[in-house]
Design a protein that fits this description.
Blueprint: H1 6-25, E1 31-32, E2 35-36, H2 40-62, H3 67-70, H4 74-111, H5 117-138
Antiparallel strand pairs: 1-2
Helix pairs in contact: 1-2, 4-5
Amino acid sequence: MIRENAGLWAGLAIFVTAVVFTVYSLKYDFQTDTGPGPGLLPFWLGCVLGVLAIIFIIGSLRKPVLFRFILPAKSGRKNILVIIGSLLLVICLMPVTGFVIASTIFLWLLLLGGYRWYSSLGIALVVSLFLFWVFGVLLKIPLPVNAFGW
C-alpha cells in the first residue's frame, strides 16, 4: 500500500528538495554589512517547505492517494512522453541549431496533435521568431544562435 501511495512519494520528493535547499543555503552568509545576505531566503524557504512536506506526508499516510487514480490514461501518457521527448530534443538541438530552429521544432512537435502539420509549423515558426525578436532584440537577452545569427 505504501508503494502505491503517490502522496507519500510526492511529499518525500518535496522534503528532499527542501533539505537540499537548506543545506546549500548554509554555504552563503545570512547577513551582510548592508542587510540580509544571500543565504537567508533560501534557508527559511527550505525550512518552511520541509515543514509543509512533513505535514503533507502525514496527511497522505492518513488518507492515501493511489497512483492508479491520478495517472493519466493511455493517450495522456503518450502526450507526456511527447513533451518530455521534445524537451530533451530541444536541449540537444539548441546549442547546434540556435534558438529559432530548436524552438520551432519543439513547438511544432507539441502542436502536431491539435493542428495540421503545416498550420502547426507556421504557428511554431511565427511564435519562435517573435520570441527571438522580443528577448534577443528588444530585451537584449543573449540567446543561443546558429551560424546565421538566429
